[in-house]
Design a protein that fits this description.
Layout lengths: L2 H14 L12 E6 L2 E7 L8 H7 L11 E6 L11 H8 L3 E6 L9 H8 L3 E4 L3 H7 L1 H9 L3 E8 L4 E3 L13 H13 L2 E4 L1 H7 L14 E5 L18 E6 L11 E6 L7 H10 L4 E6 L1 H9 L5 E6 L8 E2 L8 E7 L2 E7 L1 H8 L3
Helix pairs in contact: 3-4, 6-11
Length: about 350
Amino acid sequence: MSEDEKWMARCLQLASCGRYGAPPNPMVGAVITYEGKAIGEGYHRHCGQGHAEVNALASVRRTDLLAKSKMYVSLEPCSHYGRTPPCAQLIIDKGIPEVVVGCIDPFARVHGHGIQMLRDAGVKVTVGVMERECRLLNRRFIIEQKLDRPYVLLKWAESCDGYLDLLREGGRPTHLSTPQSQLRVHRLRAECQAILVGRRTAMLDNPQLTVRLVDGPQPLRIVLDRRGILPGTLRLFDTSAPTLVCGATDNPHRPHREGCEYLEMDYSHGSILPQLLSYLKSRGIQSLLVEGGRNLLQSFITEGIWDEIHREISSRALGNGLPAPQAPVGDRGEIETVLGTTFCHYYNRESERLVLEDQ
């Protein structure tokens, strides 16, 4: 590993610390070195607050060293005024002579302009150190920018013989998850800005859809309820987290519930998924976790509107019941078995291609 790669790897470590607070902004880490030693580092902690470069510069005690220092940053410094001033201009103002950038920012208002601003000011800029790793870290941000929709993750647990649950009209759901896998689910929830379930799952399973086993932000809970028949006693309506109910435009008789929003959707023109994703994008939702039910999950797969799948395969057999969704064939997968439970993690090939390509 080269010197530049060593410090860029540290940038990536720092950037990942912002996975709960940075979205919908990208996760970014920065390190400032002088004579091969770090004199400052930082990452983007929360959307709307200081960027990685700002925090790294603020951590430097001996500012007289900046004129002979080198900055590493995992994503191109911004060049525009948004919620904060442009970081490229700040780097110039601080007199840093050299900057190493992991990858170009796909955001249209930046996309190469930050690098050009630095070069026009006489700063030496190197681009593309550990570029693949830097892009993959921000796959959610890149997909949102390129496809103009949130990054979609599908998640389910199935028995070893391919069933989600026993066929039922009531009663308790069949538990296939373990304490270890439940912890994974809550981490995943904390990393997503919204969670979606269908009406039947809300009725039968009565999920709360909150983050409880880890310390993280609460996502927006979303439920599809075309006919407006979900009872107010469901845990989705307990006000512990915000809830969005998606109903039909032809059903104006919806109940008012505290802490609940309503979105009217047009069910008369086929799939409602593009409508929903367009609305979530307009709200600044960068990632959507779909937790069920079976038909809803299969719809995302069939329509090709997914980027990741988290599939948990239990060691328990059910014999019969509700079949699990048909996982896609040919997309890149990672498989891990822990204490008898198999975790399959799939990545959509087309999404990966978009993440890794330059334009």
